[in-house]
Amino acid sequence: MEELARLAGITVRTLRFYRERKLLRPPRREGRIAWYDDHHLARLRTITALLERGHTLNGIAELAEAFDHGRDVGDLLGVGGPTEEEPVHLTPEELADRYAGEVTPENLAAAMELGYLGTDGGEFVHISRRLLDVSSALVREGIPLAEVFRAAQQVRTHVDALADLFTDLVLRHTSAQNLPRLRPLARSAVEAELSLALDRRMRKP
Fold first, then answer.
1. Residue 84: which H helix or E strand, with range?
2. Which end of the chain is more exposed for a tag (fewer CB within 10 A), N or C?
């Protein structure tokens, strides 16, 4: 314990306090010997970084609980599943920086429910760099993250219907083997229609 505290730059008393607050997972025990590993050290450094950014211990505890019970990245991405999206690995403090003041237990739960966030070892994983960039940009514009997620849920419903429509169209007139090749056509059609719809919406008095 003394060595772990030294490496983390904290006192043994502080380390014990963090353990009592359940900010750290219990160490592996062999008899009376407790073994700490790199994950414990990474968690302690994360706690220090979040405290320096103004987060409270209660908030850090909630973030740690969400992290420890989050979906595994394999479940999130689907091993071997087709995707054009680039996942992004984020430490808890990087996630907090992306959404300053908006990383709450409710928002974390919503992100995990939507399938945006999973966990991988000592990090969070966002399923899509593009969606991460869009959501964080909207938050910087003053839109609450909870509202962004509510809108995302509605978008998900509509795009699922569009994906079904395109897939059914292709399967009725060609074969499933052509779906990957024709996928960019579906994306282009949706982007163009959305652009035209935004044009119409912005022209309204």
1. none
2. C
